[in-house]
């Protein structure tokens, strides 16, 4: 290449990609994905009866679920093999939630399809105090989105496309929340190719299953009630509810090889093709720790598939699956309840359940007191090195120091600044070792773009800035997060008559449209700033300008990250800015700090230290807008212990959040109706005293 005067770097990147990224998936999950709404109730309503939610409980909206999606996430988290999910989703917000959840778990979603005219599937889950669940499912795209898989389609899916999905696959997981012709098509081709284990979960729509489908199944996995219904439909007779072995053998006569029956607290039983029985006792979970059983069956089935591919004995496979189910019931939601490999291995080795640390999704709402992931400025870990007994030479060292901060759960990395000394894979391993997750990747364009990044006068350098932003998206995917925050210190000007304003504006629109279209699974957000020592006037100098730009970019995965200090520098009231962006569902990120804002300075002080009433309203407006990002402290300790500063920030944000969520909406409405300034100040005093 040197002889030919060619640039080696693109080929080097391609080679690394081929070495690090498997070309094909070992586990293929074809099925459903639902955005679930959980309704906590004391008991199920009787016919014609109306019930209210449990006192003090709110509905949990748009938690990722659906049997296919949950099994794919569970399998991906439990195996080092690759996992692909094939499903149908709408282009609505629910579809975005599901795609992001899958990608964050490392699932390959490249063969998922998004449909503009179909809504994403939804589940409405009734959750009783005992943890038992009942649900109503709206199939949406899960039912209507598979038209190409039918024989009478105008453009039917080809055998080549099916073979491409099956390339390298050793196990297929199917469910019954999608049409049976989908399962038949993929299972039949798998059996023709050979060497692929087909696992059919019976859960989903209550309908008969054909003999042909049963004959394709290596493992049929019903729970007891599903097994009895299938057996009864097989012989058109009532069956003995206690004789589940006979029910399983009845289905084997129709062609299925092995029937694995899950029986809740009674364990699970495998009726093998040769007639042998294997029983696995359940791993007991105390009633106190049972929160929600929604995803337990899906986690069991995914774990069984993973253990089977690892060559474990069938008894060990069932024990490993039982451990995954026991871990799952301790957390609300389907996808949120999927356990880590470490949790399942511990439960498997001990043969007993251990209490899980609640999984807190970005923006989710759990039974814990504070529902958000929290990150803090990584570079602040360089401050006060004399207080840290170890090296502070690189981002790996900074992550280790951040891992000592109680309550800190995620890390935001700067790109490319934090990726000169290690690979994406090494950064992810460091996070895993520290028990942290990635929150976002934040662009920091190097000073070669001093005349502009996406606004640079040189077209080649503008293109390079765009490619750098795309590279940041690939880093985010490798780290398991779905957010890229773009702040350019250089996109702007210093003097009047220096730039063509319309041209600079359009350059940003064109650049972000290209980036968003190439990575639809990544949420890109612009972090605006009014002024800086590098750029006196930014192309996007305010929240309103940022919102206008986002609307003209017109992409669902483009939004804003608002920095409190930047809003103060712009002369804005942060609460109003958050309300304006949040109402339009374009608030992707929030960076918390405070400052005196003298001479347009960015102080980066601790949250709520200068403007406590504004801090309270920030939390209130974030709650009102259903903010679904994570909290990030963009502060500059310098003279303070950065660990202690982060601890204080975390305590402060929780204090302000709890105070904000205690404010009476009725009382606030009476104040705002009258523009009652004195009343508002008393409201703040009362909230902060609680």
Shape: globular
Major sheet description:
8 strands, mixed
- What class, by secondary structure content? alpha/beta
The side-by-side strand order for the widest beta sheet comes to 4-1-9-10-11-12-13-14
Q: Mean pLDDT, as a whole number?
A: 88
Q: Fraction of residues in helices?
A: 25-40%
Structure notes:
- The protein starts with 8 loop residues before the first helix and ends with a helix.
- Helix 11 packs across helix 12, helix 19 (574-583) packs parallel to helix 20 and helix 20 (612-624) crosses helix 21 (642-661).
- Helices cover 39% and strands 17% of the residues.
- It has 690 residues and is an alpha/beta fold.
- An 8-stranded mixed β-sheet has the order 4-1-9-10-11-12-13-14, sandwiched between helices.
- The protein has 23 helices and 24 strands.
- The chain is globular, with a radius of gyration of 27 Å.
Q: What are the SSEs and their pairings?
A:
Elements: H1 9-20, E1 27-30, E2 34-41, E3 60-65, H2 67-78, E4 83-86, E5 88-90, H3 93-104, E6 113-115, E7 121-128, E8 133-138, H4 141-144, H5 159-166, E9 171-176, H6 180-193, E10 197-204, H7 211-216, E11 219-221, H8 224-235, H9 244-253, E12 258-262, E13 268-271, E14 277-280, H10 296-309, H11 314-328, H12 341-350, E15 374-376, H13 395-402, E16 410-415, H14 424-434, E17 437-444, H15 459-479, E18 483-487, E19 492-493, H16 501-518, E20 523-527, E21 537-538, H17 543-553, E22 558-563, H18 564-569, H19 574-583, E23 587-592, H20 612-624, E24 631-633, H21 642-661, H22 665-674, H23 677-689
Parallel strand pairs: 1-4, 1-9, 2-7, 5-6, 9-10, 10-11, 11-12, 15-24, 16-17, 17-18, 18-20, 20-22, 22-23, 23-24
Antiparallel strand pairs: 2-3, 7-8, 12-13, 13-14, 19-21
Helix pairs in contact: 2-10, 8-9, 10-11, 11-12, 15-16, 16-17, 19-20, 20-21
């Amino acid at each position: 290449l040197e002889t030919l005067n060619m640039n080696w770097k693109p080929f080097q990147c391609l080679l690394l990609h081929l070495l690090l990224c498997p070309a094909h998936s070992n586990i293929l999950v074809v099925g459903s994905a639902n955005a679930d709404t959980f309704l906590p109730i004391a008991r199920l309503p009787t016919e014609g009866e109306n019930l209210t939610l449990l006192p003090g409980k709110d509905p949990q909206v748009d938690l990722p679920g659906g049997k296919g999606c949950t099994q794919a996430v569970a399998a991906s988290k439990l195996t080092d093999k690759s996992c692909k999910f094939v499903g149908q989703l709408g282009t609505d917000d629910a579809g975005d939630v599901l795609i992001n959840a899958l990608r964050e778990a490392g699932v390959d979603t490249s063969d998922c399809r998004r449909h503009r005219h179909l809504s994403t599937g939804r589940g409405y889950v009734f959750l009783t105090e005992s943890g038992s669940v009942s649900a109503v499912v709206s199939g949406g795209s899960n039912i209507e989105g598979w038209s190409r898989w039918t024989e009478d389609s105008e453009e039917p899916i080809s055998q080549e496309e099916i073979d491409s999905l099956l390339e390298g696959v050793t196990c297929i997981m199917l469910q019954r929340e999608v049409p049976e012709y989908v399962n038949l098509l993929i299972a039949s081709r798998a059996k023709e190719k050979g060497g692929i284990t087909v696992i059919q979960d019976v859960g989903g729509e209550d309908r008969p299953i054909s003999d042909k489908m049963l004959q394709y199944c290596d493992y049929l996995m019903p729970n007891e009630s599903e097994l009895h219904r299938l057996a009864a439909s097989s012989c058109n007779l009532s069956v003995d509810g206690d004789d589940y072995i006979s029910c399983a053998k009845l289905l084997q006569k129709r062609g299925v090889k092995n029937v694995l029956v899950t029986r809740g607290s009674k364990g699970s039983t495998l009726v093998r093709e040769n007639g042998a029985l294997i029983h696995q006792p359940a791993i007991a979970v105390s009633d106190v720790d049972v929160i929600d059983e929604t995803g337990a069956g899906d986690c069991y089935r995914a774990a069984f598939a993973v253990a089977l591919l690892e060559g474990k004995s069938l008894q060990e496979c069932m024990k490993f699956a039982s451990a995954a189910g026991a871990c799952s019931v301790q957390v609300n939601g389907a996808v949120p309840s999927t356990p880590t490999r470490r949790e399942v291995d511990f439960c498997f080795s001990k043969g007993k359940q251990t209490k899980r640390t609640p999984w807190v999704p970005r923006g989710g709402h759990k039974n814990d007191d504070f529902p958000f992931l929290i990150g803090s400025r990584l570079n602040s870990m360089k401050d006060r090195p004399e207080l840290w007994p170890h090296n502070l030479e690189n981002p790996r060292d900074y992550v280790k120091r951040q891992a000592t901060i109680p309550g800190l759960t995620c890390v935001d990395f700067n790109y490319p600044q934090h990726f000169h000394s290690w690979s994406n894979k090494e950064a992810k391993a460091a996070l895993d070792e520290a028990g942290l997750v990635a929150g976002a990747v934040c662009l920091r364009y190097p000073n070669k773009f001093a005349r502009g990044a996406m606004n640079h006068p040189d077209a080649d350098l503008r293109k390079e800035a765009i490619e750098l932003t795309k590279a940041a998206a690939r880093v985010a995917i490798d780290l398991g997060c779905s957010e890229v925050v773009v702040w350019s210190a250089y996109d702007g000007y210093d003097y009047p008559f220096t730039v063509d304003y319309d041209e600079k504006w359009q350059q940003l629109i064109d650049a972000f449209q290209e980036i968003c279209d190439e990575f639809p699974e990544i949420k890109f957000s612009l972090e605006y700033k009014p002024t800086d020592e590098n750029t006196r006037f930014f192309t996007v100098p305010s929240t309103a300008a940022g919102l206008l730009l986002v609307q003209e970019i017109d992409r669902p995965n483009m939004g804003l990250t608002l920095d409190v200090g930047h809003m103060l520098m712009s002369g804005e009231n942060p609460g109003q800015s958050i309300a304006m962006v949040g109402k339009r569902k374009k608030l992707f990120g929030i960076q918390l700090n405070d400052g005196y804002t003298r001479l347009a300075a960015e102080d980066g002080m601790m949250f709520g230290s200068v403007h406590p009433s504004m801090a309270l309203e920030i939390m209130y407006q974030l709650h009102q807008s259903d903010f679904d990002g994570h909290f990030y402290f963009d502060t500059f300790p310098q003279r303070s212990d950065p660990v202690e500063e982060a601890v204080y920030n975390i305590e402060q944000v929780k204090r302000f959040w709890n105070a904000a969520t205690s404010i009476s909406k009725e009382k606030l409405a009476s104040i705002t109706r009258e523009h009652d300034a004195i009343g508002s100040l008393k409201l703040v005093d009362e909230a902060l005293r609680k």
